[in-house]
Write a structure and sequence with these properties.
The chain has about 400 residues and is of the alpha/beta class. It contains 14 helices and 11 strands. It folds into 2 domains: about 140 residues, Peroxisomal Thiolase, Chain A, domain 1 (3-Layer(aba) Sandwich); about 240 residues, Thiolase/Chalcone synthase (Peroxisomal Thiolase, Chain A, domain 1, 3-Layer(aba) Sandwich), CATH 3.40.47. Helix 4 packs across helix 14 and helix 7 packs across helix 11. Bound molecules: coenzyme A. Coenzyme A binds next to helix 5 and helix 6.
C-alpha cells in the first residue's frame, strides 16, 4: 500500500443551475481541480466519477466516458469509470481512486462527482431518489426519503428524548455556516422559530429539516504521496478510507437509530489512521436530514449514542465548538447534488486543512473526516485526511 494525497480541488456553485448543462458542470469542477493540482492531461492515469442517477435525472448514462470527453481527454484515452452507490456515489469514487493509487496501479487520478437534479419535476426527483430505497419493501408502498428519515427521527425521539428544537438547531447551525460559503445553495441564516415552524414534509421533519434538490459538481486530484511535491507544495494526505454496507431497507437493521454501516466504516478508518474520534478536528457528515447529522455524530463516536441532540443543543458542533461539524453548510445548506456530495465533502476538508476556507476557516485544523451515506444507511464511506 502506498500513501495517497489530494493535490487539487474544484467545485461548482451548488443550486438550481438552469444555465449550465451536465457537461458544463463536470468540465468546470474538473478543470478547477486540475489547474489547482498543477497536473496536465498526460499525467492523469485514470478517472473515477460518482453519479447516482444521471439516467433518470438527465436521460444520460455512460457517464465515465462523457466526463472524460467533456474534460477534453477523449483523444488521450484515459480510462474513466462511473461509480454508483446512491448518495454515497461520490465517497465511493474517492475510495476507488484512493485504492487504485495505494495499490500501485496508478500515480495520478482525477475523481469527480456530479448530479443535475433540477431538470425534472420535484415529483420525479423524489421518485428517482427513492430508487435508492428498497423497491420491493419500501418505495413500492410509497415511502420517500423524507418519510424514511422521519421514521428514524421518531424512533430517536422516543428512545432518547431528542426534540424537534434540537433537530431545528442542526439546520440553524448549518445555514449559519452555509451563509459563509459562496458555493452554497442557500447562503442565508435561519432562525430556530423558522426551522421548527416550517411547512411539514414528513412528520416530524419540516422543510428546513431537509436537504434540497441540487445541481452541482465537485472534483479532486489524487496523487501518490511520494510524487505529490512534484505538483504542489500543499498536499493533504488521505490517511484512512473506510467503507461498509448494511441492509437496503430500514426494517432489516439491528437498530434503526444507528447506521451500522457508518459505525463499521468509521471503525475501519480509525484503525487505519491509528486515531480515535477525539483526534478529529473537524468533520463533514452526511446531514441529508437534520436527524441524519445527529445519528452521524453518534455513529462516528464524537458523542455517545443518544446524546447527539443534546450535543447540538450544547453547541459543541458549531464552527467555534469542540468538534465543528459541516463547516461548509453541509447538505442542508450547501446543497445535496447526490453524486457530487461525497467529493464536495473532501473539497471542504482539504480547504480547511490548507487554511483556504475564508470566512469559515477554523484555527489550524490538522485532521479532518468526511462521512458520506447512500440511501438510509445501506452504504457508508469515511475518509480521514491530514495536512502534510
Ligand atoms: N431547505 C430550505 N429551503 C428549501 C428547501 C430546503 N430543503 N427546499 C426548497 N426550499 C425553498 C426553495 O428555495 C423555495 O424558496 P422560494 O419560494 O423562496 O424560492 C421554496 O422552498 C419552495 O421550493 P420548492 O422547490 O417548491 O420545494 P419543494 O416543496 O418542491 O421541495 C422538499 C421541498 C423538502 C420536498 C425537497 O427539497 C426535497 O425533496 N428534499 C429532500 C431531498 C432528498 O430526499 N435527498 C436525498 C436524501 S437521502
Amino acid at each position: 500500500m502506498r500513501d495517497v494525497a489530494v493535490i487539487g480541488v474544484g467545485l461548482t456553485k451548488f443550486g438550481e443551475l438552469w444555465d449550465k448543462s451536465f457537461r458544463n458542470l463536470t468540465a468546470e469542477a474538473g478543470s478547477k481541480a486540475i489547474i489547482d493540482s498543477g497536473v496536465s492531461g498526460k499525467d492523469i492515469d485514470a478517472m473515477y466519477i460518482g453519479s447516482m442517477s444521471s439516467g433518470r435525472f438527465i436521460g444520460q448514462e455512460h457517464i465515465g466516458a462523457l466526463v472524460a470527453d467533456a474534460s477534453g481527454f477523449s483523444h488521450i484515452h484515459i480510462p474513466a469509470t462511473r461509480v454508483e452507490g446512491a448518495c454515497a456515489s461520490g465517497g465511493l469514487a474517492v475510495r476507488e481512486g484512493f485504492l487504485s493509487i495505494a495499490s500501485g496501479m496508478n500515480d495520478v487520478v482525477v475523481v469527480g462527482g456530479i448530479e443535475k437534479m433540477n431538470d425534472i419535476s420535484g415529483t420525479s426527483a423524489t421518485e428517482t431518489l427513492a430508487t435508492a430505497a428498497d423497491q420491493e419493501w419500501e418505495a413500492f408502498f410509497g415511502v420517500t426519503f423524507p418519510g424514511i428519515y422521519a421514521l428514524i427521527a421518531t424512533r430517536h425521539m422516543h428512545e432518547y428524548g431528542t426534540t424537534k428544537e434540537q433537530l431545528g438547531q442542526v439546520a440553524v447551525k448549518n445555514h449559519a455556516n452555509g451563509a459563509k460559503n459562496p458555493y452554497a445553495q442557500y447562503q442565508r441564516e435561519i432562525t430556530i422559530d423558522k426551522a421548527i415552524n416550517a411547512t411539514m414534509v414528513a412528520e416530524p421533519l419540516g422543510l428546513l429539516d431537509c436537504s434540497p434538490v441540487t445541481d452541482g459538481a465537485a472534483s479532486i486530484v489524487l496523487c501518490a504521496a511520494e510524487k505529490a511535491k512534484n505538483f504542489t507544495d500543499k498536499p493533504v494526505k488521505i490517511i484512512a478510507s473506510g467503507q461498509a454496507s448494511d441492509s437496503l431497507a430500514l426494517h432489516g437493521r439491528r437498530d434503526i437509530c444507528t447506521l451500522d454501516a457508518t459505525v463499521h466504516a468509521a471503525k475501519m478508518a480509525y484503525k487505519q489512521a491509528n486515531l480515535n474520534p477525539k483526534d478529529i478536528d473537524l468533520a463533514e457528515v452526511h446531514d441529508c436530514f437534520t436527524i441524519a447529522e445527529i445519528c452521524a455524530i453518534e455513529d462516528l463516536g464524537f458523542v455517545k449514542k443518544g446524546e447527539g441532540g443534546k450535543a447540538v443543543e450544547n453547541m459543541i458542533t458549531t464552527i467555534d465548538g469542540e468538534i465543528p461539524i459541516n463547516t461548509s453548510g453541509g447538505l442542508k445548506s450547501k446543497g445535496h447534488p447526490v453524486g457530487a456530495t461525497g467529493v464536495a465533502q473532501i473539497v471542504e476538508i482539504v480547504q480547511q486543512l490548507r487554511g483556504e476556507a475564508d470566512k469559515r476557516q477554523l484555527k489550524d485544523p490538522r485532521i479532518g473526516l468526511a462521512h458520506n451515506v447512500g440511501g438510509s444507511g445501506a452504504t457508508s464511506t469515511v475518509h480521514i485526511m491530514e495536512a502534510i
